[in-house]
Amino acid sequence: MLTGIYAPIPTPFAADGEIGWEELKKNLAWWGATPLAGLVVAGTNGEAAYLEGAEKERLVACVREGTPAEKKVVAGTGCESTRETIALSRTVAKAGADAVLVLNPYYFRGGMTKEVLQKHYFTVAESSPVPVIIYNMPRNTGFNMDSDLLISLSRHPNITGLKDSSGNIVQISEVVAQAGDSFAVFAGSANFLLPSLLMGAAGGTLALANIMPRECVKIYDLFKAGRLEEARNVQLRVLEVNAAVTSRWGVPGLKAALDLMGRYGGPPRSPLLPLPAGLREELKKILAGVDLL
Amino acid sequence: MLTGIYAPIPTPFAADGEIGWEELKKNLAWWGATPLAGLVVAGTNGEAAYLEGAEKERLVACVREGTPAEKKVVAGTGCESTRETIALSRTVAKAGADAVLVLNPYYFRGGMTKEVLQKHYFTVAESSPVPVIIYNMPRNTGFNMDSDLLISLSRHPNITGLKDSSGNIVQISEVVAQAGDSFAVFAGSANFLLPSLLMGAAGGTLALANIMPRECVKIYDLFKAGRLEEARNVQLRVLEVNAAVTSRWGVPGLKAALDLMGRYGGPPRSPLLPLPAGLREELKKILAGVDLL
Amino acid sequence: MLTGIYAPIPTPFAADGEIGWEELKKNLAWWGATPLAGLVVAGTNGEAAYLEGAEKERLVACVREGTPAEKKVVAGTGCESTRETIALSRTVAKAGADAVLVLNPYYFRGGMTKEVLQKHYFTVAESSPVPVIIYNMPRNTGFNMDSDLLISLSRHPNITGLKDSSGNIVQISEVVAQAGDSFAVFAGSANFLLPSLLMGAAGGTLALANIMPRECVKIYDLFKAGRLEEARNVQLRVLEVNAAVTSRWGVPGLKAALDLMGRYGGPPRSPLLPLPAGLREELKKILAGVDLL
Amino acid sequence: MLTGIYAPIPTPFAADGEIGWEELKKNLAWWGATPLAGLVVAGTNGEAAYLEGAEKERLVACVREGTPAEKKVVAGTGCESTRETIALSRTVAKAGADAVLVLNPYYFRGGMTKEVLQKHYFTVAESSPVPVIIYNMPRNTGFNMDSDLLISLSRHPNITGLKDSSGNIVQISEVVAQAGDSFAVFAGSANFLLPSLLMGAAGGTLALANIMPRECVKIYDLFKAGRLEEARNVQLRVLEVNAAVTSRWGVPGLKAALDLMGRYGGPPRSPLLPLPAGLREELKKILAGVDLL
C-alpha cells in the first residue's frame, strides 16, 4: 500500500515543444535525493492532456530509471475511453510504473452516471497489471465523483487508493470512514494536507512537493509524531506559495517557480503560456517569503 | 470572545404556522441542561427567511429568558438592506442578544463586490451595540465570501468572528492564519468540525448540536485534551446523521429528528413541507444507528 | 390577458435612503406619456429586496394614481414565506395592482422541489384577488424553475403568465408550446425580446423599457406587423445599452442612465452603491451611441 | 461560406468497439439522399473523445467518398494541445474535409484566458489548409467562450464560422451583430434553430438532423421563405424529440433512435453504455409521436 508524500512532476519541454530529456534527468536527480515517497508522471501537472501515449510511456521509463528504487513511480493513465485507458495502463506498467492514477472520463459529463463510472473503473482495474488509484479532480473535469461512488469503487481489490483534489474534507472523511484500512486516500493539494491526514488520509500527491518536498514531508512526519502544533504551523506557512503553483497560476506558476529556484521548469506546451513577467516578479516575492530563493 | 459549541435552534411552529412558544420553552429547558456554550436564534435552521422582524425580537427575548445566564445567545440579523440589518441588530441587542450573526446580502449577487460587502459589514459593525459575527453560507446564498474579503472584515474591532458554512477547509485555514487570535472562526456544520478545530477554529455552530449536543461538545473537548484519535472516531461516527439534518433533508429533517426523539420539531413554515413519511422511516434508522432513539 | 411591453421601474431614493415620492411622480408622468402597456412596481429593478411591505403598498398606490388608467400596474410580491407572499398580494391588490409578479422562494434552494414550489404557487394563486404572474430569475435566485414545473403551474386558472429572465430561449419555447394560448410569457430582458416574440411570447418586462420605452415597443410593433428585418435591426442595436443597465452594471447602471438622461435615478439603497464616476463616463458614451443624450 | 443544415453524424461501432465501416456506408447513402447541406465527422456526436487520430482520418476519407460531392464534409479536430490540433487539421484536410470544427481546449479551464484561446485559435487558423469553424460547447467543456472572445476570433480570415451549442440566444445575437456578414454562425442544437436564424445565423449543425433531416431543413427553408408561422410550428413540434437525442439521453439516445428507425445506431464506445431497455421504450413513443416509426 502506498503512503506518504508524492510529487506529481511537471514535464519539461524545450522551446520547440519537445520533451527535454536531459532537463528531466537533472530534476530527477534532485527529487531523488529528497525524502519523497515517490513521483507521479503524466498527471495534471505533467500536462498529460498535451502528451501523446508514446511520450507518456517513454516518460515513465525515464523516470523509473532516474529514480531510486525505493521510491515509487505512479503513472497517470486516465483517458476518455475505457479501451485507451486500459491500453495505456498496460504500457506504463511494462515501462516500470508501480501503480496507475486514473482520472475519470468527463467530456460527456451528463452521461457519467454512477453505473457508467463503476463499469469503467472496474473494467480498467481488472485489466491493469498494477494497482489503480482513482483520481478525482473536479476543478478540471467539471464534476465531482461523490463519496457514494468513491466508496463503491474502493471495494474492488485492484483499486487501492484515491487522489482527491476536490479539497472537500467532508468527502475525504466519508471515504476514509467507509472505504476500509487498506484503501489509501491521498490529499490532492498541499493546502488541505494536514486536515486530510487528521481524518485518516495515507498521504498526499502535491504540486507543492515539486518545489518544497522537505516541508511537505515535514507536515506528514510531524503529524505522525503527534506534534500537531508544529505541523499546523508548517501547514499554515505554505498556504500562499501552494496557491501560487496551483489554483492561482497553475502549471505555468509551478514551472516558473522551478526556474526561479535554479531547477528546470521551462515553458508549458501550447496553448498554455509561460507565466508573464509581472506575475513572475510577484511569484519571486512569494518564494522568497518561504526561503526558496 | 465566543468559543465552543453552539446550537442554531429551529423555530417551533404550530400547525397554523404561528410560533409555538410553549414548545420552544420546553426545548430550551432541555438545551439549557447540556454543555452547549450557547444558542443561535433566527439563523438558517431557525427559518429566519420566514420570520418577521417582530417575531425575531420576541424569539430572542424568550430564548434569553429560558436559557441559563452562562450560555450565550446569538441572534441572526442579516437582511438584504443595510438599514434593516442595523435596525434589527439594535432590536435584538436590546432583547438580550450577546452578539449578532450577520448573513451577507445576496439577492443582487452580481453587485456584491468586495467594496460593497466591506462597506455593508463595516456600517453594520459600527451601528451594532453588540459584536458582529459574519455568516458565510454559500449553499443558500449562492456565492462564497472568499478569504481575502473575510480577512479584511476581520480587521474591524466590532467584527469578532465568522461562522463559515462553506465547508472549505482551506478557506477556514487561510482566515485563521491571517485574521489574528482574537477573531473566532466557527465551523458551520458538524461534518467538518474536527478539521476546523485542528486548523485553529474557536468552535462550531452546528445544526447537529440541536439533537446531539453532548457528542458535538465531546469532539471539542477531546480535541482540546489532545485525544485526537478518540475525537476522530466521534467525528466519523456523526457524519451520516449530520448529513440527514443538513445537506440531505435540511430543516424538515432536523425537525423530524427532534419529533422522533421526543422533543418538539413540528412542521416548518410554508413553502417548506414536513419530511415525508417514507424519509421519516429512513431517518429513524439513522438516528437509531447513533443511539438517539 | 396582459400583453405588450412593461417597464419594471426603479424606486427613487433620496440621499437619506427614503423614497423620493416627488421624483417618482415626475418619472411616472414621463412613462405615462409613452406607448408602454404598463409598469411593474417593486420588482428586481425596484430594489424590492430592500423595501418593506408598507413601502411596497404605498408605492403601488402612488404608481396607480400617477399612471393613465389604460396602462396596467403589476406589483412584485414574492416573499420567502407563503404567508407573507399572500398577505402582500392582498395588500397591493387593494392598493390598485392589476396583477402580482411572484418571484419564487429561494433561500432554501435545496428544498425547493417541484412539489414544494407547486404547492406554494397554487396556494398563493388561490388566495390572490388578482392574477399571478410567475417570475423566474435564476441569475438572482441562484436556480432555474424548469419548463416542466412552469408548465404545471400554468394550468392554474389564476396563474396567467410568466416573466422569464433566464434568457433560455428553449425553455421559453417549451413553455409557450405547452402552456396554452391564454398563458402570457414575457421576456424578462430586452436582449432576447425579439426571439421570444417569435417563439410566441406575449410581450416583455424590460429594464431597458425604463429608458428606451419607444424602441422596446417598436420591436414589438414591428414584429407584430411582420417587419422582421427592421425588428431585428432595432433588437441588435439595443444589445449593448441593455447589457449596461442589466447584467453589466445592474440597478446602479439603470439609475445612472436615468440621471444622465435628465430623469431621476438617484442612488440605490445600501448595500448597493451608485455607479462609480469612471463607469458613468463609459455609460454616457453607450447612451450617446443610441441617441439617448 | 457554409450555410444550411448539417448533421454531426454518430460513429457506428460494432459490438467489439471497432468502427463499423459497412454500417457507416449504409447510413451515408441515406443521409446523402436528403437535402442536408453537409455532414460533420468526429464531432461530439461522433464520440470524437473516444476516437484515435488515425480513426478520425479514415472516417473523414470514408465519409467524403460516400457522400455526394455537392455536400460539404466538416471534420472535428479540436484537441487539448495546439500542436495536435494542427496536425489533425492537416491530416483531415488531406483526407477530404472542406473545413475543420475546432473545439476549444478545456482541461486547464482556469488557464484558458482570452489571450490563451486567441493565440491557440489564431495559430491553428494559420496552419490549417482549410477554414476553421469555432466550436463552443459549454455543457461538455464546462465553460463558455463569451461574445467578446468569439467576436475577436471572427476577425481572422481563416476563421469563418462558429458552431454555438450554448443555446444562449443573446450571445448568438451579439456575435452575429458584430462578426460581420462573412462569418457564419451555426446553431448547435435544433431546439434553438429558428430563433438563431431569426437573429442572423447561417444555419445549424444539429444532432436531430441525423434522424429528422427533412424537418430540420424545412425549418430553414420556411424561414428563408418568410413563412414564419409554419416554421415556428415545426420548431415547436421537434423540441421533445430533440431533447431525447441531446440533453436528455445524449449519444446513447441518438444511436437508439437510429436503431429504432431501421438505420444503424449500435452501441456507443465504453464508458458510455447503450440506452437501457426502459428508456428505449420511452424513446419509441417520442419517435412515434413525430411519425418517425
Description:
The structure is a homotetramer of 293-residue chains. Chain A is of the alpha/beta class. Chain A has one domain (4-226): TIM Barrel (Alpha-Beta Barrel), CATH 3.20.20.70. The first copy, chain A, contains 13 helices and 8 strands. The first copy, chain A, has helices at 21-32, 53-65, 82-94, 114-127, 138-141, 147-154, 169-179, 193-199, 213-224, 228-237, 239-248, 250-260, 277-289; strands spanning 4-8, 38-41, 72-76, 99-103, 132-136, 159-164, 184-187, 203-205. Chain A has an 8-stranded parallel barrel with strand order 1-2-3-4-5-6-7-8, surrounded by 7 helices. Chain A starts with a strand and ends with a helix. The A-D interface holds A 17, 44, 49-50, 52, 80-84, 105, 107-112, 115-117, 119-120, 123, 139-142, 247, 250-252, 269-273 and D 17, 44, 49-50, 52, 80-84, 105, 107-112, 115-117, 119-120, 123, 139-142, 247, 250-252, 269-273.
- CATH domain topology of chain A: TIM Barrel
CATH superfamily of chain A: Aldolase class I
Provide the domain count of chain A. Answer: 1
- Helix count of chain A, per DSSP? 13
The tally of beta strands of chain A, per DSSP, is: 8
Largest interface: A-D, 36 and 36 residues
Structural class of chain A: alpha/beta
Q: Sum up the overall morphology of chain A in one term.
A: globular
> In what range is the share of β-strand residues of chain A?
5-15%
How far apart are the termini of chain A? 35 Å
User: What is the succession of H and E elements of chain A?
Assistant: EHEHEHEHEHHEHEHEHHHHH
User: How are strands sequenced across the largest beta sheet of chain A?
Assistant: 1-2-3-4-5-6-7-8
CATH class of chain A: Alpha Beta
**CA-based gyration radius of chain A:** 18 Å
Assembly status: homotetramer
